[in-house]
Structures are given as C-alpha cells and as structure tokens.
Amino acid sequence: IAQAFFCLLLCVPWGSSCPPSCQCTEQAGAKAVLCSSRHLEEIPKDIPKDAVFLKLDANSITRIPSNAFRHLSHLEELDLSRNAIEKIDRAAFRGVAAGLRTLDLSSNRIRSIPKEALLALNAKLRLANNPWHCECALQEVLWEVRLDPDSVQDITCHTAPREEYVGKPLLQVLDAGVNFCSVRQRTTDVAMFITMFGWFTMVIVYVICYVRHNREDTCQHVDYLKSLPSAQ
C-alpha cells in the first residue's frame, strides 16, 4: 500500500491542479483557467503552470505585484479587465511578456503605469476606460506598446496638465500636436536656467564682496603707512 501511495504521488500532475475559486477547462488542447466574477482581491497563487488562457476579470484585484505570472510560461491570453487595479509593479509581467498575445487591462482604476512593466510585451494591449493622467510617462508608454485598435479611442484623459485636455481621447490630443514630453523638457530647461542663474548671482555677489573687502584692507594699510613717521 505504501509503495502504491508513493507511486501515486509521483504520478500526480501537480502543475495541472486548479485553484478552488476557479474553473479549469481544456479548449482545443490548451488549458483555460476561468476565475471571472469570483470576488478575488488578489491573483491566485496556485494557477496551473500549463495555463494558456487566464481570465481574472470582474473581480476586486487592486494590484499586480512583481512576478505575479512568472511561472506561467505557456500563457498567451490574460484578462484583467473590470477589476480595481490601481498599481502595476515594474516587473509585473516578467517571465510571460514575450509569449502573451493579448493583455486586457481595461475598466480598472489605473492612472499611470511604469513603462518598464510593458517594455518586453508583444501582446495586443487594451487600456480603455481607466482614469488616466495624461502626461509624458503615459505618452512614452503608448510609443512602446502595441495597442488594440478597437479600444484606442476609449483611452481618455481623466486628468492632465491643462484643463482643455480633460475628457478628451488621448489619441485626439496627441494628433492635435500636443507633446507632453516637450512640456516636461521645457519645464526642466527653465528649472536648470533658474538654478544656473542663482549660482551665477552667488558668484557675482562673492566677487563683489571680495573686491570690496580687499579694497578696505588696502585703504587701511595705506592709512597706516601714512601715519608712520617718515624716514630721516
């Protein structure tokens, strides 16, 4: 009996276990893990390693931590839409970025996302219906990723450096010639100019004080020499 039990342990496909809050099925020979609308507040830890399709939509997930899917080397489609995601770590998709074909982050609470989190992605990305803060960082993200063309118009500016951009599709704002990164560059240039001007002013003040001090010392020395009795 002990030998049979040991053999059974060795033969159990541990990578094919299914989280208790999810349903695992086979679709055309590929494993699909369905965890939609399960009141999840975080990503399950025991997702099967051979999962190809993973649906985590319509839950209450607030954050995607680093290496959240790293063990899922076969993952091709990841749906995280309709959650409460506010924070995405820089290494959130490490280990799966190259293999993903679609990544859905629409209808969350994402205001900004680190560019590093998406750099290696080849997936078609959905970012619509999030309260985006339109700035240089978001513009750089859009330059780097491959967006789903059907959802591009729904990436709108919830907040922005200028009130006139709020409520408008980001693509429309950029097409109008707005460059959030050049605005940041101009701000940086102004800050550098002010700093340099401040240093220059300090140097000038120092030189003036130094000259005045030396002049006073010289005058005092001359007066002292004049006060001495002349040599016979």
UniProtKB/TrEMBL annotation:
Residues 17-53 form the LRRNT domain. Keywords: Leucine-rich repeat, Membrane, Repeat, Signal, Transmembrane, Transmembrane helix. Pfam families: LRR_1, LRR_8, LRRNT. One of its GO terms (cellular component) is plasma membrane. It is a single-pass membrane protein. The chain crosses the membrane at residues 190-211. SMART domains: LRR_TYP (SM00369), LRRNT (SM00013). The keyword Signal applies. InterPro entries: Leu-rich_rpt (IPR001611), Leu-rich_rpt_typical-subtyp (IPR003591), LRR_dom_sf (IPR032675), LRR_TM_domain-containing (IPR050541), LRRNT (IPR000372). Residues 1-17 form the signal peptide. The keyword Nucleotide-binding does not apply. It is found in: Membrane. PANTHER family: ANTIGEN BSP, PUTATIVE-RELATED, LEUCINE-RICH REPEAT-CONTAINING PROTEIN 3. Belongs to the LRRC3 family. This is Leucine-rich repeat-containing protein 3. It comes from Cariama cristata (Red-legged seriema). The lineage of its organism: Eukaryota, Metazoa, Chordata, Craniata, Vertebrata.
